[in-house]
Amino acid sequence: MGARPWFWSDIQPWYTLRNQVVPHILHGLHAGLMCSLRVTTSGLNQAHPYLNGDTARGALFIVWHDSLLLPMHLVRHKKMGVMVSRSRSGQIAAALWKLHGFPIVWGSTRKRAGIQAVREALGHLRAGQSIGFAPDGPQGPRHQAHPGVVYLAAQAPALIMPVGVAATAAWRMPTWDRHLIPRPFARVHLHVGAPIEVPQNVAREQIVHWQNIVTESLERAESTACRKLNEARS
Fold first, then answer.
1. Rounded distance, CA 68 to CA 136, Å?
2. Are the CB atoms for 60 and 151 separated by under 8 Å?
3. Residue 221: what are its φ and ψ, rounded to 5°?
4. pTM
5. Whether the Cβ atoms of residue 126 and residue 57 lie closer than 8 Å to each other
6. Three-state DSSP class for 181?
7. Are strands 160-167 and 60-62 parallel, antiparallel or unpaired?
8. What is the pLDDT of residues 76-98, one digit of tens each?
9. pLDDT band at residue 2 using 50, 70 and 90 as cut-offs
10. Where are the domains of the chain?
11. What is the CA radius of gyration of the chain?
12. d(CA 134, CA 119)
Protein backbone atom coordinates (compact mmCIF):
# COMPACT_ATOMS: atom_id res chain seq x y z
CA MET A 1 0.00 0.00 0.00
CA GLY A 2 2.97 2.33 0.61
CA ALA A 3 3.06 5.73 2.28
CA ARG A 4 0.66 7.53 -0.07
CA PRO A 5 -2.56 6.94 1.98
CA TRP A 6 -0.73 8.14 5.09
CA PHE A 7 0.58 11.23 3.29
CA TRP A 8 -2.96 12.30 2.36
CA SER A 9 -4.43 11.58 5.81
CA ASP A 10 -5.28 14.27 8.37
CA ILE A 11 -3.31 12.63 11.19
CA GLN A 12 0.03 13.94 12.43
CA PRO A 13 2.78 14.24 11.36
CA TRP A 14 1.44 13.76 7.83
CA TYR A 15 -0.92 16.75 7.92
CA THR A 16 1.89 19.14 8.93
CA LEU A 17 4.26 17.53 6.43
CA ARG A 18 1.77 17.94 3.60
CA ASN A 19 0.51 21.45 4.34
CA GLN A 20 3.60 23.13 5.78
CA VAL A 21 6.83 21.29 5.02
CA VAL A 22 6.13 20.32 1.40
CA PRO A 23 4.96 23.84 0.33
CA HIS A 24 8.14 25.39 1.78
CA ILE A 25 10.29 22.87 -0.11
CA LEU A 26 8.35 23.60 -3.32
CA HIS A 27 8.68 27.33 -2.68
CA GLY A 28 12.46 27.04 -2.50
CA LEU A 29 12.65 24.91 -5.64
CA HIS A 30 10.31 27.25 -7.49
CA ALA A 31 12.30 30.35 -6.48
CA GLY A 32 15.56 28.75 -7.60
CA LEU A 33 14.11 27.75 -10.95
CA MET A 34 12.54 31.15 -11.61
CA CYS A 35 15.80 32.96 -10.82
CA SER A 36 17.56 30.92 -13.51
CA LEU A 37 15.10 31.82 -16.28
CA ARG A 38 15.48 34.61 -18.83
CA VAL A 39 12.05 36.25 -18.68
CA THR A 40 10.44 38.68 -21.10
CA THR A 41 6.90 40.05 -21.05
CA SER A 42 4.45 41.89 -23.29
CA GLY A 43 1.09 43.51 -22.59
CA LEU A 44 1.81 43.67 -18.86
CA ASN A 45 1.46 47.47 -18.68
CA GLN A 46 -2.30 47.24 -19.14
CA ALA A 47 -2.47 44.94 -16.12
CA HIS A 48 -0.53 47.14 -13.68
CA PRO A 49 -3.49 49.28 -12.48
CA TYR A 50 -5.37 46.11 -11.52
CA LEU A 51 -2.37 44.40 -9.94
CA ASN A 52 -1.60 47.52 -7.88
CA GLY A 53 -5.19 48.03 -6.73
CA ASP A 54 -5.57 51.37 -8.49
CA THR A 55 -9.02 50.59 -9.91
CA ALA A 56 -12.47 50.62 -8.36
CA ARG A 57 -13.05 47.01 -9.37
CA GLY A 58 -10.65 44.14 -9.78
CA ALA A 59 -10.05 42.12 -12.94
CA LEU A 60 -10.09 38.39 -13.63
CA PHE A 61 -6.62 37.22 -14.65
CA ILE A 62 -6.91 33.83 -16.31
CA VAL A 63 -4.25 31.38 -17.45
CA TRP A 64 -4.40 27.73 -18.43
CA HIS A 65 -3.90 25.32 -15.54
CA ASP A 66 -0.65 23.99 -17.04
CA SER A 67 1.01 27.45 -17.11
CA LEU A 68 0.70 28.68 -13.53
CA LEU A 69 4.35 28.65 -12.42
CA LEU A 70 5.57 31.79 -14.20
CA PRO A 71 2.62 34.06 -13.26
CA MET A 72 2.97 32.86 -9.66
CA HIS A 73 6.49 34.30 -9.69
CA LEU A 74 6.00 37.47 -11.75
CA VAL A 75 2.95 38.92 -10.00
CA ARG A 76 3.67 37.78 -6.42
CA HIS A 77 2.83 40.12 -3.54
CA LYS A 78 0.39 42.18 -5.63
CA LYS A 79 -3.22 43.10 -4.91
CA MET A 80 -4.56 39.87 -6.32
CA GLY A 81 -6.04 36.73 -4.83
CA VAL A 82 -6.22 33.30 -6.42
CA MET A 83 -9.04 30.77 -6.57
CA VAL A 84 -7.88 27.30 -5.53
CA SER A 85 -9.70 23.98 -5.27
CA ARG A 86 -10.42 22.54 -1.80
CA SER A 87 -9.01 19.19 -2.90
CA ARG A 88 -6.06 17.67 -1.04
CA SER A 89 -3.61 18.69 -3.76
CA GLY A 90 -5.34 22.09 -3.83
CA GLN A 91 -4.46 22.56 -0.16
CA ILE A 92 -0.76 22.14 -0.99
CA ALA A 93 -1.12 24.55 -3.93
CA ALA A 94 -2.91 27.07 -1.70
CA ALA A 95 -0.10 26.97 0.86
CA LEU A 96 2.40 27.58 -1.96
CA TRP A 97 0.38 30.52 -3.33
CA LYS A 98 0.21 32.01 0.19
CA LEU A 99 4.00 31.89 0.46
CA HIS A 100 4.06 34.07 -2.67
CA GLY A 101 1.73 36.62 -1.06
CA PHE A 102 -1.58 35.63 -2.67
CA PRO A 103 -4.80 35.62 -0.60
CA ILE A 104 -6.81 32.45 -1.23
CA VAL A 105 -10.41 32.20 -2.45
CA TRP A 106 -11.49 28.59 -2.03
CA GLY A 107 -13.23 27.23 -5.11
CA SER A 108 -15.27 24.05 -5.40
CA THR A 109 -17.06 21.90 -7.97
CA ARG A 110 -19.74 21.13 -5.35
CA LYS A 111 -22.86 23.27 -5.69
CA ARG A 112 -23.17 24.71 -2.17
CA ALA A 113 -19.46 25.35 -1.68
CA GLY A 114 -19.24 26.65 -5.25
CA ILE A 115 -21.93 29.27 -4.59
CA GLN A 116 -20.05 30.46 -1.50
CA ALA A 117 -16.82 30.66 -3.53
CA VAL A 118 -18.54 32.79 -6.20
CA ARG A 119 -19.91 35.15 -3.55
CA GLU A 120 -16.48 35.52 -1.98
CA ALA A 121 -14.83 36.13 -5.36
CA LEU A 122 -17.45 38.75 -6.27
CA GLY A 123 -16.80 40.51 -2.96
CA HIS A 124 -13.07 40.70 -3.70
CA LEU A 125 -13.62 41.96 -7.25
CA ARG A 126 -16.11 44.64 -6.20
CA ALA A 127 -13.69 45.81 -3.49
CA GLY A 128 -10.97 46.40 -6.09
CA GLN A 129 -8.97 43.19 -5.63
CA SER A 130 -8.25 41.16 -8.75
CA ILE A 131 -8.64 37.38 -8.85
CA GLY A 132 -6.47 34.92 -10.74
CA PHE A 133 -7.48 31.39 -11.65
CA ALA A 134 -7.32 28.69 -14.27
CA PRO A 135 -10.62 28.47 -16.16
CA ASP A 136 -9.96 24.85 -17.17
CA GLY A 137 -9.21 23.71 -13.60
CA PRO A 138 -9.26 21.92 -11.32
CA GLN A 139 -9.90 18.76 -13.37
CA GLY A 140 -10.24 19.82 -17.00
CA PRO A 141 -11.01 19.27 -19.81
CA ARG A 142 -7.64 20.74 -20.69
CA HIS A 143 -7.69 24.16 -22.42
CA GLN A 144 -11.48 24.49 -22.32
CA ALA A 145 -12.86 27.41 -20.32
CA HIS A 146 -15.62 26.62 -17.82
CA PRO A 147 -18.71 28.87 -17.53
CA GLY A 148 -17.70 30.19 -14.09
CA VAL A 149 -15.33 32.79 -15.52
CA VAL A 150 -18.10 34.21 -17.72
CA TYR A 151 -20.54 34.34 -14.80
CA LEU A 152 -18.04 36.11 -12.52
CA ALA A 153 -17.08 38.64 -15.19
CA ALA A 154 -20.73 39.48 -15.88
CA GLN A 155 -21.86 39.68 -12.26
CA ALA A 156 -18.95 41.71 -10.80
CA PRO A 157 -18.68 43.26 -13.47
CA ALA A 158 -14.99 42.72 -14.22
CA LEU A 159 -12.71 42.63 -17.24
CA ILE A 160 -11.14 39.29 -18.16
CA MET A 161 -7.38 39.50 -18.76
CA PRO A 162 -6.06 36.44 -20.67
CA VAL A 163 -2.47 35.42 -19.93
CA GLY A 164 -0.31 33.21 -22.15
CA VAL A 165 3.04 31.60 -21.32
CA ALA A 166 5.71 30.04 -23.56
CA ALA A 167 9.15 28.53 -22.92
CA THR A 168 12.01 27.55 -25.20
CA ALA A 169 12.64 24.37 -23.20
CA ALA A 170 10.37 22.71 -20.69
CA TRP A 171 9.27 19.46 -19.12
CA ARG A 172 5.67 18.28 -19.34
CA MET A 173 4.29 16.48 -16.30
CA PRO A 174 2.24 13.25 -16.77
CA THR A 175 -0.88 14.96 -15.36
CA TRP A 176 -4.28 15.70 -16.91
CA ASP A 177 -3.13 19.25 -17.78
CA ARG A 178 0.39 18.21 -18.96
CA HIS A 179 1.76 20.81 -16.56
CA LEU A 180 4.59 22.92 -17.99
CA ILE A 181 7.82 23.27 -15.98
CA PRO A 182 10.44 25.42 -17.74
CA ARG A 183 13.90 23.90 -17.75
CA PRO A 184 16.61 25.82 -15.85
CA PHE A 185 18.09 28.73 -17.85
CA ALA A 186 15.36 28.55 -20.49
CA ARG A 187 13.89 31.66 -22.11
CA VAL A 188 10.27 32.24 -21.14
CA HIS A 189 7.72 34.83 -22.20
CA LEU A 190 4.49 35.97 -20.56
CA HIS A 191 1.91 37.84 -22.63
CA VAL A 192 -1.22 39.59 -21.36
CA GLY A 193 -3.78 39.71 -24.14
CA ALA A 194 -6.52 42.22 -24.91
CA PRO A 195 -9.13 42.41 -22.12
CA ILE A 196 -12.55 40.86 -22.60
CA GLU A 197 -15.69 42.64 -21.40
CA VAL A 198 -18.65 40.34 -20.85
CA PRO A 199 -22.06 42.11 -20.88
CA GLN A 200 -23.69 42.34 -17.44
CA ASN A 201 -27.01 41.14 -18.84
CA VAL A 202 -25.54 38.21 -20.78
CA ALA A 203 -28.29 35.70 -21.53
CA ARG A 204 -28.01 32.10 -20.35
CA GLU A 205 -28.02 30.86 -23.95
CA GLN A 206 -25.03 33.12 -24.68
CA ILE A 207 -22.80 31.62 -21.97
CA VAL A 208 -21.30 28.99 -24.28
CA HIS A 209 -20.57 31.69 -26.86
CA TRP A 210 -18.59 33.68 -24.29
CA GLN A 211 -16.86 30.53 -23.05
CA ASN A 212 -15.59 30.03 -26.60
CA ILE A 213 -14.41 33.64 -26.73
CA VAL A 214 -12.47 33.14 -23.49
CA THR A 215 -10.94 29.89 -24.77
CA GLU A 216 -9.92 31.52 -28.04
CA SER A 217 -8.42 34.53 -26.22
CA LEU A 218 -6.23 32.26 -24.08
CA GLU A 219 -5.08 30.26 -27.08
CA ARG A 220 -4.30 33.54 -28.86
CA ALA A 221 -2.35 34.85 -25.84
CA GLU A 222 -0.33 31.63 -25.73
CA SER A 223 0.38 31.82 -29.48
CA THR A 224 1.48 35.45 -29.08
CA ALA A 225 3.82 34.45 -26.24
CA CYS A 226 5.37 31.79 -28.52
CA ARG A 227 5.76 34.32 -31.36
CA LYS A 228 7.34 36.94 -29.09
CA LEU A 229 9.72 34.30 -27.75
CA ASN A 230 10.79 33.30 -31.26
CA GLU A 231 11.27 36.95 -32.24
CA ALA A 232 13.53 37.49 -29.24
CA ARG A 233 15.66 34.50 -30.23
CA SER A 234 16.09 35.54 -33.88
1. 12
2. no
3. -65, -40
4. 0.89
5. yes
6. strand
7. parallel
8. 999 899 999 887 778 888 889 99
9. low
10. 4-233
11. 18
12. 18
